[in-house]
């Protein structure tokens, strides 16, 4: 017999020879899936810098494990934008003509806040783009974004039926009274369902939950609607498809009740862009579908009070004069500092008719308007000059061009979101949640380009 040597005794558990290179999905999924909870807790947009910290750690860990980190195509444009934001801080102490004089230190809090948000969303872009299908599939990301549209619609309905609904959040309770009573801080940590405004005769609630402002609500509505359509189309469940159609039908009600003309224009841009893409792909049935949808919408406008609401809003353009005034101020400021801007926004001296008219408790919209607060384009030009504007527009414009051949439903929805953001920047500011959805749409296009079209 041949002697068999006994196996060597194990001295303990085997040492790991490989490092964990995976990126978990929970930082991205946690932001989107639990956003109503963050809003109720008073975290809201603050969740983005909070989640950015573990994302940075996980990205660094993956890089240390030998896994290369990818940068999105056109990232040099975004780097130029971030650099311009930093450099423009040098002009923070300047007081352009017709604006309220302040010290640079008084403006620093808002600037640091915006800078931290831009940095956090940059991390979100890199993290979402470096996730693999096994870690967070594009199909699931589309479902999460579609779910955010459902949240937007539910928040809109809440704003309609309970316009005065608000409460003190746990985070708000923890803050000293002198801090939580400041308008800027309150806008971040105090949840409310709607903004009460007098636009068409009498004060009416305009949906805002869970995005803080009616304009942000409308912006996100346009950015997210396409993802619900794609998610429903990719689902094998007839029940889910039916619920998605029902949600889209119901969404018309808060969309009209919001009195948000920018939202209505944005939806038109999205529909026309998607139709254009489908016609180019030879899918002419989209024309018939649009005609049917337009007919149904027209009947709804005639047969319900929604039509009266739309006509009343179009006949009452109270904000037109203020917007024109602020655009002129932004362009005047741009000519005064065309390269780097002024580092942030400024408040006007008085109103558009007199420097003696200012904001008061009885007339919050009479003066002291924010130059750069009426649209992302005007804020870019005023706060960060030509360099920052070119970097910002260059990044998203390059993405639309680079990924123009992505004809997958998810790719068309993502590019439609970016296209709508170009029209929205004329009257909406993008920070924070609209820009978050824009970078996630960019990450989706980027991953489609790398991994091949999926949905």
Structural class: mainly alpha
Domain module count: 1
Strand order of the largest sheet: 1-2
- Measured by DSSP, the beta-strand proportion falls in under 5%
User: What is the 3D form?
Assistant: globular
Low-confidence segments, given as residue ranges, are 1-18, 353-364
Radius of gyration: 24 Å
State mean pLDDT (0 to 100 scale).
88
- The overall strand count is 4
Q: How many angstroms separate the termini?
A: 64 Å
What's the helical proportion of residues?
55-70%
Main sheet overview:
2 strands, antiparallel
Question: If you had to describe this structure to a student in words, what would you say it looks like?
Answer:
This protein has one domain (26-57, 71-451). It is built from 18 helices and four strands. It has helices spanning 26-33, 35-41, 47-64, 75-88, 104-130, 138-161, 170-174, 177-180, 183-189, 214-234, 238-257, 261-280, 285-303, 306-315, 320-336, 376-402, 409-424, 433-451, and strands at residues 194-198, 203-207, 346-347, 370-371. It has a two-stranded antiparallel ribbon with strand order 1-2. The longest helix has 27 residues, at 104-130. It starts with 25 loop residues before the first helix and ends with a helix. The model is unreliable at 1-18 and 353-364 (pLDDT under 50).
Which descriptors would you attach to this protein?
455 residues, two-stranded antiparallel sheet, transmembrane, mainly alpha, two-stranded antiparallel ribbon, disordered N terminus, 18 helices
